[in-house]
Amino acid sequence: MFDDRSSLSRTPHHAVALDCLEAAIEAAAPDRAAREAVARDGETLRVGDSEYDLTAYREVVVVGGGKASVGVARVITEVLDDRLTGGVVVAEHPDTLDTVSVRVGDHPVPSERTVTATAAVLETVRAADASTLVLFVVTGGASALLTAPAGDLSLADLRATTTGLLESGAPIEAVNAVRKHLSAIKGGQLARLAAPATVVTFALSDVVGNDLSVVGSGPTVPDETTYADTLDVLDRYDVAVPAAVRTHLEAGAAGDVRETPGVGDAAFDRAETHLVGTNSEALESAAAAAADAGYDPLLLTSRLRGPARHVGPTVLSVAEEIAATGNPVSPPAVVVAGGETTVTIDGGGGRGGPNQELALAVALELDGPAVFAAVDTDGEDGSSDAAGAMVDSETVPDGERRRANEALRGHDAGGYLDGVAATLYTGPTGTNVNDVVVVVIPEP
C-alpha cells in the first residue's frame, strides 16, 4: 500500500507502524463496509436492520457523492442488479459503474465541473416521486463534491468562503454549518427535494463522533444549525467572505430566506440513514494488527481534534508514560488513535497537511526509540498528495532543529519531511474515515 515500503521499514518497529496503518485503511474500504450493511433476498432489500419491499417502487436510483462514494455505490449496484434503474454519484477521480453515472468534481474547493456534476444529482432527485426509492451515498469529501450554490450566490462566492473557512482552523462542524446555509443540497435539503420519495442513506463517516448532520454536510438528515449560527462562525473565526455571502446569511437570519429543514420536518417522514463505516472500526483493525505482531495495543481515542502541532505531542506523552512506567500497558506496545486535527494558516504556508504537521511537531520532541506515524485514510493529507508521515528520533537531528522549527511555524511540514524521506505516499485510497495515528513503543 505504501510507496517504497522496503526502505521505510528499516526496523521491525517501523514495519509494525506501517502494518497498523494498512490494516486501518483496508478496514475502511467502502466496498467492505457496504457489503456488511446491504443484502437482497428476492424482492426484499435489507439495509442494516431495515427492510424495503422492492415491488413497492417503480424506480430505484442511486445518487450521492464523496471520496468513497463509488465504492459504496458499486456494492449497491451489484446487490440490486436488474432492479436498479439509474443514478449518478460525484467522486474526486474518474471511474465507471453499471447503470450509475460517475461524475468528477474537485476537493477541497469546488469547481465549475463540481457544480455541473451536482446538477445531475439534483435532476435525478427532482424527478423522484412516491414510487421512487432513492439510495443516497454520502462519504467524506461530499461537502465539496456536492456543490449547488443557494439563491443568487455564485461558485466564486462559495470558493472564497470555503478557502477562508479551511484556513481559519475552525472545526468541521462549524465549517459545515456555513456550507449548509450557502447550498441548495446540504443540510437536509436533498431530502426536501426528494419528498415524497423514500430516501435511504448510506453514510461512511469522516467526522469525529459520527454526527450524521455533519458528514458531507448532511444532505438527507435534519439540520439543527441556523443562519444565525453561521454568522457566529464567521465572526468567531474571523473569516472574511464575499459581500454576497454575508448578505445571504444575514437575510436568512432575518427570516427572509427559508431555513434548512430541522427535526420533525416532513422532509424526513420517509427518510432513514444507516452508518456503514467509521474511524473506530479502522482503529480496531489497527489495534488487532499490533496484537498480531506481539505488541500490546492501546486504543486511545477516535476523537482527536484541535491544532495538529499540539495534539501530536499530547499523544506522544501517552507513549512516553508507557515507556517509562508500563502504564497503562506494558512495552512492547502500540498506541492507536484517530480523529481530525486542524491547521490554522496564519502566515507562511508550504507543503503538507495536518498529519504531517502533527508528525513534525512530534519529531521535534522524540528522544527515545518510539516510532510515530499519522495518515489521512483517503491518502491525501490536507491539500497535499502525501497521506501523512512516519518519524522517529533521527528525523530531526540536532543540527536541523532550527530548520525543522521554521518549517513547522511556516506550515511547511511536508517540505521538511519530504526532504528527509519521512513522508508516506499511498495515492488515493478510495475511502475516507478521518485520520489514524500510531505510536510503536519497543521493549526497553
TrEMBL record:
Residues 17-250 form the MOFRL-associated domain. Residues 334-435 form the MOFRL domain. GO terms for cellular component: cytoplasm. GO terms for molecular function: glycerate kinase activity. Residues 379-400 are annotated as: Disordered. The keyword Lipid biosynthesis does not apply. Keywords: Pyruvate. The keyword Membrane does not apply. This is Hydroxypyruvate reductase. It comes from Haloarcula pellucida. The lineage of its organism: Archaea, Methanobacteriati, Methanobacteriota, Stenosarchaea group, Halobacteria.
